[in-house]
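User: I've been trying to design a sequence by hand for this structure and keep getting stuck. Would you show me what you'd pick, starting by listing the structure so we're on the same page?

Assistant: Good idea, let's start from the same input. This is the structure you sent:
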């Protein structure tokens, strides 16, 4: 296990050993090794090191591996036949060896993705899978579509989507059908009408600022910079827009047709589970790999994994894909 993914010392986590689950923590020893510390069983009763070793046939100083299942929450201990190279005089606890992560095989990834896809189809999300497959690419984006998707991301951030959807038609009229040049021309009128509909001055101000920015830069120049840039640069360009934060840039990128995954908590956990860094880069690498393996767009892979992990239900019949 890479040290960056190892449980923090003294921080409790769930640990599976054979078929048993324990609550424990780890501590660093002066020898440079890491040892399992106080451990409790499922009933909350303290298990001594001697009892733990006896029950699971662990030897004093034996090297074991602690593998990630869900980072910082659930790990699995696996035994090694190798004898520890550094035995600790401080503890009879098994010694955890920091191993290099073993990435999940192609076949395992394909099987898990297909399983996730089947499950969400059973729950009735086939129509949204189809929508993501048919979503227009970035090359087709125009001024109205771009500004509409941008404004939705700004309004939806930290708001319930239901509220935004309910007010969307009124906001569309107030913002001149998302024509940024018309918005700039009637700026004060737009602001007054929008404030009467939603009343969030900060979000409305951000959208007005973006309209001015696009007018000054010019749509053709801005669009060309998006189309010609690499993915990291595209995300930076979107991140620079008023009101777009670290998470919203991924939502906006996907909405305008950039093939990218949003590294939310579900995708970060999925990346860690499959021995990828639980970072934005790790999520992109994993979803990109699955995309190549199954022949789907990254956007579709992102949606399938998110919908499955989010665990939403749908009362409608499963659609066909």
């Amino acid at each position: 296990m890479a040290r960056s993914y190892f449980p923090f010392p003294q921080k409790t986590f769930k640990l599976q050993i054979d078929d048993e689950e324990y609550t424990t923590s780890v501590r660093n020893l002066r020898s440079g090794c890491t040892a399992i510390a106080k451990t409790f069983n499922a009933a909350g009763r303290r298990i001594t090191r001697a009892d733990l070793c006896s029950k699971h046939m662990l030897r004093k100083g034996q090297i074991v591996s602690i593998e990630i299942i869900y980072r910082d929450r659930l790990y699995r201990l696996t035994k090694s036949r190798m004898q520890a190279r550094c035995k600790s005089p401080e503890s009879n606890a098994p010694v955890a060896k920091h191993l290099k992560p073993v990435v999940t095989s192609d076949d395992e990834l394909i099987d898990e993705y297909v399983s996730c896809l089947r499950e969400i189809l059973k729950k009735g999300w086939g129509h949204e899978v189809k929508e993501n497959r048919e979503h227009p690419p970035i090359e087709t984006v125009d001024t109205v579509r771009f500004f509409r998707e941008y404004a939705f991301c700004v309004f939806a951030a930290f708001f319930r989507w239901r509220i935004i959807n309910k007010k969307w038609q009124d906001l569309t009229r107030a913002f001149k059908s998302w024509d940024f040049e018309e918005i700039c021309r009637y700026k004060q009128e737009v602001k007054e009408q929008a404030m009467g509909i939603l009343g969030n001055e900060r979000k409305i101000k951000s959208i007005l600022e973006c309209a001015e920015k696009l007018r000054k830069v010019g749509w053709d120049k801005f669009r060309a910079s998006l189309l010609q840039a690499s993915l990291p640069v595209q995300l930076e360009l979107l991140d620079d827009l008023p009101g777009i934060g670290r998470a919203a840039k991924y939502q906006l990128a996907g909405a305008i047709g950039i093939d990218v995954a949003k590294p939310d908590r579900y995708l970060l956990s999925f990346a860690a589970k499959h021995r990828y860094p639980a970072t934005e880069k790790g999520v992109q690498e994993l979803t990109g790999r699955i995309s190549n393996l199954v022949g789907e767009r990254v956007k579709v892979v992102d949606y399938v994994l998110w919908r499955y992990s989010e665990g939403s239900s749908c009362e409608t019949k499963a659609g066909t894909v």
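That's my pick for every position. To get oriented when you compare it with your attempt: The radius of gyration is 25 Å. Residues 138-255 form one domain.
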